[in-house]
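Archive entry: two folds, one per protein. Generate the first.
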Amino acid sequence: MIQQVTSGIKISVETEFEGTFYKNYKVHFAFGYKITIENQSRDSVQLNSRYWTIQDALNNTKTVEGEGVIGKQPIILPGEYHTYNSGCLLTSPFGAMHGHYNMTNFTTTSDFQVIIPEFKLSAPFANN
């Protein structure tokens, strides 16, 4: 599990290889990830948007950004957390992801970024 705390918000990431399949005559490697966003601060916060950089071992890079996560913009009270599952496809059995969430602190009404630490994606059959 990968973890990092930014401005009192703890991000924890767990990954899982889900399998391979063909799409458009190419093999793709499917990975799932579970993210827990824990509010360790004294203020209520809201996750507004996300920004991801996804890179595979063939140096293919994809950027993903958008509102919220999985169609939600959760409000996370002090001491509470929000967990969600998502996934990505790579064209190689190895890769990595990292990014940030844009959030609002309701006490100060200020916006801030929370770092999503880089985490590795790897198919177990390709590991030595």
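Generate the second and append.
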Amino acid sequence: MKLPQPLYEVLRWFTWIVLPATATLIAALNAAWAWGWPIEAILSTFSAVETFIGVVLGIAKYSNDKEEVK
């Protein structure tokens, strides 16, 4: 599986920066404003999505690096 470099960079930025920052913002605002959202479920969902995309990116990077060595 090979991802184009621009797509890889966008997904990496999204996974490493945007998703964790959004999860932190939602958790903080939920606590500060007592919204009563099911924060554990929301954070678990964010974590699962981050892990999934991270694994896909890791596999893509490994495949790409392996092809470059040949």
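Annotation attached to the second fold: The first helix runs from residue 5 to 33. The chain has a mean pLDDT of 93.
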